[in-house]
Design goal:
The protein has about 350 residues and is an alpha/beta fold. The protein is about 35% helix and about 20% strand.
């Protein structure tokens, strides 16, 4: 008999049980959510999905910008044993439909900003039976074969539903992620529940030395493996907080504004954006709160590293990772920096 393990209880419930429910978990613009508030919303999302007929190991496509809805939908699906499949919300509707169809998703949760693409998405994914949008009533209309719900109506489904975590175990299917397609056509990489604590411990703890007083901000989005660790699983693994930015695409000026305002201690980015920051008309003290910056997804030129260090006074840790391995598996360390 496998020992039960559900990644959502590891990321959320244990902090509340330890008395840390009032710690800030998520910051988005002017709004904040504590761990207790996030946990409440996650249980409602899980109960609502269950009430709508989503069962263990069924896929739930997430076409969501970085937001509290992404966090609660991702963890809510995993809580009931379902498998969230984050997809780039900036893709055209037809491409979204192809990925949703390949995952055989039975439900999709989408940001209101992609409502105009939902018809094409649904047309390409015949197994979809439920479409949920994060705004108020969307443009897509339901039918005999398709339920459509806005966010408030969806959450109401979970008010009195069953929010008990599904008895998954470490090796249970947890979530799927789209690869970048750098070696050909993008693929769906499958991950287990245990993959989350493994990456949190081997990189978040061992390399970043992340702790509960850290605040994480990732320019890389949550639908990527890199961003998912940076702005969700790493901070939640230790009771730290994550700063989310739903507006895409990012600009150096907007990123500098967020860093100055919310003062993250861990900053995650890619080399081309570090180069853009180096050349942008932003204050030299914009990154004064950052103790460590991280780079991945592309080779980091030594010139980019040195310019960022000289201008902003922050070291960049360069790492190599992959969607298949979920995050960075080869990295510089704070004690051994070689750009």
């Amino acid at each position: 008999m496998q020992e039960p393990f559900n990644a959502t209880t590891w990321l959320l419930d244990r902090h509340i049980e330890a008395g840390d429910g009032e710690r800030v978990a998520v910051v988005e613009d002017d709004r904040t959510w504590t761990y207790a508030q996030v946990a409440d919303e996650v249980t409602r999302v899980g109960a609502a999905l269950r009430a709508l007929g989503v069962t263990a190991e069924q896929r739930v496509a997430l076409v969501l910008l970085d937001s509290i809805e992404f966090v609660t939908a991702f963890l809510g699906a995993m809580r009931i044993g379902a498998v969230p499949v984050p997809i780039n919300p900036l893709l055209p509707g037809r491409d979204l439909g192809v990925i949703a169809a390949e995952s055989r998703a039975t439900a999709v949760i989408a940001s209101a900003t992609v409502a105009g693409h939902l018809s094409d998405l649904v047309a390409g994914a015949p197994e979809l039976g439920t479409v949920i949008t994060t705004g108020s009533e969307g443009s897509l209309r339901g039918s005999a074969d398709l339920r459509t719900l806005d966010w408030a109506t969806f959450l109401a489904e979970g008010e009195t539903g069953d929010s008990t975590p599904y008895p998954t175990w470490a090796e249970s299917p947890g979530f799927w992620l789209c690869t970048s397609g750098s070696t050909g056509r993008p693929r769906l990489a499958t991950h287990r529940h245990v993959d989350i604590p493994v990456t949190c411990e081997t990189y978040g703890a061992s390399v970043l030395d992340i702790g509960p007083d850290d605040r994480c901000f990732s320019v890389g989005p949550l639908f990527h493996a890199y961003g998912l660790g940076n702005a969700l699983t790493f901070p939640f693994s230790v009771g730290a907080s994550a700063v989310l930015e739903p507006h895409r695409p990012p600009t150096p000026e907007r990123v500098a504004e967020i860093v100055t305002r919310h003062r993250p201690t861990l900053f995650f980015c890619i080399p081309t954006f570090y180069a853009a920051l180096n050349s942008a008309p932003i204050p030299d003290d914009a990154f004064a709160s950052v103790r460590v910056a991280v780079s991945a997804a592309e080779p980091l030129p030594a010139e980019t590293y040195h310019r960022f260090r000289e201008r902003f006074g922050v070291h960049i840790l360069d790492g190599i990772g992959s969607t298949e391995l979920l995050h960075i598996y080869l990295s510089n360390t704070l004690d051994d920096l070689r750009p």
